[in-house]
Every structure is written in structure tokens, then in C-alpha cells.
Amino acid sequence: MPKSKGKILRWILVGFFIVSISGCAISKFPSTEPQDPYEHLNRKVFAFNMALDRALFRPVAKVYDAVLPWPLKKGVRNVFSNIGDVTSVANEILQMHFSQVAADLARIVINTTIGIGGLFDVASKLGLEKDKEDFGLTLATWGSKNTPYLVLPFLGPYTIRDMVGLPIDYFLFSVWPYIKWDAIRYGMEATYVVSYRASLLAGDEIVDQAFDPYVFVRDAYLQRRAYLVKESKEEHVTKYTDDNGIVHRSRRSIPVNSVLTN
Question: 69 burial class (0-12, 13-18, 19+ CB within 10 angstroms)?
């Protein structure tokens, strides 16, 4: 077995162990929020992240948002969204959501070819709705219950389950490790970070004005993940848009006529 795959396998095994025992740790660290037993430490990391964001990431994102025209910003986001669809497909296979696997594979082919490398989201216009999945959601589908909330330096809010999924998604289920030219990969990753941060600028004022920004971000993150976990665990259905712009949900594959006529 290649060394890189051996390391990934070891990380998966360690991850499963961490996820399985993390629930036991909650009772040892009492907190007002059951899913946030490490609140004291999390608040310190959150304060560090916020300070770094105000000093570096937010100003850079504002310049990016002000300088680049909207069509170009949209194109950049579409490219990274197309790259992310590869990770989603891998996790959909593990979750056995095969109808969505077919839909997202079609998205990748259409957007990479007709959409010129993903610059244009042609697939969505054809009725192939995006479905974002990650290994944290896969673990939840496999039965992992709520795990403690963590704030990671530089990366922000996660849970232990979602943190375990980070290296799996990046090293095993994404295209990033296969970009051999470091300068290109680092440049693309930096662009992704700036683009993603720019997409969050609209929410900065809400967070800054919150009575307790830490609690606001934590609750928003946990509620969002809980919603995605519930959606992922339910019977997965394929979504498509008809000629009138109405989104339908079907347990069968996407009707060919609905795609061809959009």
C-alpha cells in the first residue's frame, strides 16, 4: 500500500476512534451548552480568529469584492463549486445516494466542458441542482451522533466529527492533492479562501452587532449542520426544475425531457 494511502487509512481509523469516544467527554466538561463542553477554550480561539480576520482576511476580502466585477467573482465561485462537486460525489457514493451521484457527475461533466472549466454553471440552468456533501455528513449518515463543538484556529467553527472529515475530504476526495505544481495549487487555494471570505461579507455586520458573537456563530453553525444531517439521513431524492422554474423532487433519475427542454 502506498505511504500516502496508508496515512489516510490510519487517519480514518483514528478519526472513527475520536468520534466514538467524543460523546463520553461531554460529561467531564460541564457547560451551559451540552454540545459545547470546551467553551472556555473555544472562546479564546474564537477571539484570536476574529482579531486575525479583522486585521487580515476581512480587508483583503473587501478589496477583492470592490475590485473584481460581479461576473468575474461569480465565475471564480463557480469554478470552486465545480471542484467541490467531486468531493460531494465521493461522499454520496459512501452514503449510497446513487441517484444524486448520477446527477452530480452530470453536473461535473457539463460544467467542466460546456461551462468552460466551471466558469459557468450550465448544469443548474439545465435543472441539475447542486447537492453539497462532506465526510462529516457521511459519518452522521453512518450513525455518528452529535459531537462536541470546536473552534479551530484559522478555520473557525467545527465539531469533532466534522474536523475528522476535513483531511479525508481534502486528501482522499478532492482534486487538490493531484495538482502537482505547488505555485498553481497554492495560488488557487489562496484565491478560494479570499473568494469564500468575500461571500461572507454581508453577514459581518450581523455578527459584529450580536449581543454575544461567539454564541451567535456557534448556534448558527450547529443549527445549519443539524439541518444538513437531517436532510442527508432522509431518503435522498433527485431534484430537477421544470419549464416553469418549479423545483420537483423525484425518487427516480432526472427526467431527460426536463433537462433537454431547459
Answer: exposed
